Amino acid sequence: MGDFKPPAAKVDGGQIKINANKETPMSLFISDAMAETAPAAAASPGFAQFLPLIIIFVIFYFLLIRPQMKRAKEHKGMVASLAKGDEVVTNGGILGKIVAVEEGFFSLEVANDTVLKMQTSSVSQVMPKGTYKSA
After folding, report:
1. Residue 15 belongs to some domain of the structure
2. Among 37, 76, 83, 126, which residue is least crowded by beta carbons within 10 Å?
3. Distance from chain centroid for Cα 101
4. Is residue 2 in some structural domain?
5. 107 and 59 in one domain?
6. Are residues 75 and 120 in the same domain?
7. Does residue 24 contact residue 2 with C-beta atoms inside 8 Å?
8. Interatomic CA distance for residues 65 and 55, integer angstroms
């Protein structure tokens, strides 16, 4: 393969004239064009690409998901152990004494002759005995 020399261009009175060099034949084949090849691509990182995502999920699990599951388990156990005579505070902040427990509901005495029927899941915490009488 010989060295390729582009044809010389000459400006003459505002017109461009290309002076083709008859000695150098121009090849239209890619192999003769001496095209530069692209650099080889790096190997795909595979597992390393997903490592930050895995680390974030593990952090979320230990900081958010696991403690929430633990609190939900404790609350479920507390609700299952509700019995007549327990003094509780509801999510709305109502303090009272349980006078009856049914499936999914309980009756809460908040004052003399004032009984509210509420869902068992609305209990926020069980108070020590005697809290209701002192309030």
Report:
1. no
2. 37
3. 40
4. no
5. no
6. no
7. yes
8. 14
Tokens of 37: 């090849």
Residue 90 lies in a domain: yes
**Nearest Cα to Cα of residue 84 among 68, 66, 107:** 107
The residue written with tokens 């403690």 in the block is 67
Token digits for 103?
């499936």
- Polymer length in residues for the chain: 135
First to last CA, the chain: 103
Mean pLDDT of the chain: 80
The range of the structural domain enclosing residue 133 comes to 83-135
pTM: 0.57
d(CA 57, CA 63): 10
Place of tokens 């002076």: 19
Residue with tokens 């699990």: 61
Structure tokens at 2: 């010989």
Residue 9 included in any domain: no
Q: Is the pLDDT of residue 42 over 80?
A: no
Count CB neighbours of 106 within 10 A.
Answer: 25
In a shared domain, residues 133 and 87: yes
Structure tokens belonging to residue 68: 């929430």
Contacts of residue 133, Cβ cutoff 8 Å, sequence gap at least 6: none
Helix/strand/coil percent split, the chain, to 5: 35, 30, 40
